[in-house]
Amino acid sequence: MARPHTTYIPLPCEAGRQWTERTAVLSLVPIHIVSHETQLPKAFLHPSAKTRMVIGFDCEGVGLCRTGTLCLMQLAFPDAIYLVDVLQGGKTLMDACKPALESAYITKVIHDCKRDGEALYFQFGIKLHNVVDTQIAYYLIEGQHGRKRSPVDCISFVGLLADSRYCGISYVEKKEVHSLLREDPKFWTYRPMSELMVRAAADDVRFLLYIYHKMMAKLSDRSLWQLAVRGALYCRCFCINDNEYADWPTIPSIPDNINMEGSHLEEEVLSVLNIPPGKMGFIIGKKGSSILSIKESCNADVIIGGREGPQDKVFIIGPLKQVKKAEAILRGKLMGNAFDW
């Protein structure tokens, strides 16, 4: 009989918005490998307002995007970690998880939700909803302290864990896994999963609840609203459909209770700009110089699909006026290069 897997989950001494800087409590929890819905908590499978919960969340796969293969989905609860084996459980298992992943009653804490959301949507028809994206939260907190984000900044999960304000640990094994993935992109497809696979998968989610509580204590009311909105927009970022996202959950509106003391809180939007065939190179520029200058010119996130695609679109997320500004700059570059031809 195989030895059961376990790991430690760090939890704050006092959860909630009023939590203060204290030493984490380390809780030894089991790691469950799930191939059937009956192995998951009922409260997760049947979300309700009476059983609201916050969980750590991540996905692993081969070329994780619309056309890749989603292999594993990790869920971190305060008392256990569940590794949902998508390869073994297939569509039946993912259909059982769909209500939870789309539920407003379950908060999914994740670092960079874009590709996970894309894979879930195109491979299983799941519209990932109600996420707290720790990458977004990190920069909102930085902004509260007047630290402007560089256009080339993109805090990695390893970088976040290393930051003493959130965890202050070195995630050495992540580098080992990245090295193995470069050597063998099918790393996450092998079954049964090795001890390294189980440990690496659990490590990607077991710190997220602790980080969540630390971030919630730092975020202002304004930033909390922006976090909710941008999380919703990033979840649907690469999930292009023909109905303008009409079948997705609504974007959180500006709360009435936020007093900006004379500063106007602006609606935040996602804009998708179609790029003519063969013209994406003009947008990116030599060694990324053009896209960098666009990012420096406006206070909006300008995202391209890269190798995983979609390769004919640019996604812009941010305050409405800044998004319009980015659109104008992008169109100007396309028009300018059109004359060169």
Automatic annotation (TrEMBL):
Matching InterPro entries: 3'-5'_exonuclease_dom, KH_dom, KH_dom_type_1, KH_dom_type_1_sf, RNaseH-like_sf, RNaseH_sf
Domain 3'-5' exonuclease: residue ranges: 31-220
K Homology domain mapped to chain residues: 267-335
Sample GO molecular function, one term: RNA binding
SMART domains linked: 35EXOc, KH
Protein name (Swiss-Prot/TrEMBL): 3'-5' exonuclease
Organism (species): Penstemon smallii
Superkingdom of the organism of origin: Eukaryota
Keyword terms, alphabetized: RNA-binding
